[in-house]
């Protein structure tokens, strides 16, 4: 009961400016100093803020590096497929520095793609493609080619 009476009367007295003013002044002074608000000394707070800034800079640098690596990959793919180059990718690579390389995983993927393309372009690759083809399809293509050549020869030659 006394708590209820105290809270009712106390809040009304505070609104008139009577009582509790020292606590309010203390709260106001803590609000203006962020170090005190977080329970740290001024030096600790400054060190904490400096660490936050350094961590942010490191994250930004890593992010820029990743963006540059992705841009490098896009440049390689554009060169491979003979697509037009993008200025945005070149700018990202320049912003990160010229020492940007593809990550190891992506280098392996690019190397595998190049090996596959070389195999497809080699004689062995063509032989394997022939082995994969259906013999009926090969026979049909050969007979069609032979009949076309025969018809062309008959048109050109008067004796046949």
From TrEMBL:
It comes from the Eukaryota. Residues 82-91 have a biased composition (Basic and acidic residues). One of its GO terms (molecular function) is syntaxin binding. Signal peptide: none annotated. Residues 1-49, 82-101 are annotated as: Disordered. It is found in: Synapse. InterPro entries: Synaphin. Belongs to the complexin/synaphin family. This is Complexin-4. It comes from Pelobates cultripes. The lineage of its organism: Eukaryota, Metazoa, Chordata, Craniata, Vertebrata.
């Amino acid at each position: 009961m006394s708590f209820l009476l105290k809270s009712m009367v106390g809040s009304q007295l505070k609104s008139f400016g009577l009582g509790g003013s020292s606590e309010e002044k203390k709260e106001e002074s803590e609000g203006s100093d962020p170090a005190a608000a977080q329970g740290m000394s001024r030096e600790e707070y400054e060190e904490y803020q400096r660490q936050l800034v350094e961590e942010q800079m490191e994250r930004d640098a890593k992010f820029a590096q990743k963006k540059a690596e992705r841009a490098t990959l896009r440049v390689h793919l554009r060169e491979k497929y003979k697509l037009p180059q993008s200025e945005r990718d070149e700018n990202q690579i320049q912003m990160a520095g010229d020492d940007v390389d593809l990550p190891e995983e992506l280098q392996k993927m690019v190397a595998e793609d190049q090996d596959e393309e070389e195999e497809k372009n080699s004689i062995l690759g063509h032989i394997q493609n022939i082995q994969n083809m259906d013999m009926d399809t090969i026979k049909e293509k050969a007979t069609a080619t032979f009949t076309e050549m025969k018809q062309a020869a008959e048109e050109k030659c008067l004796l046949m």
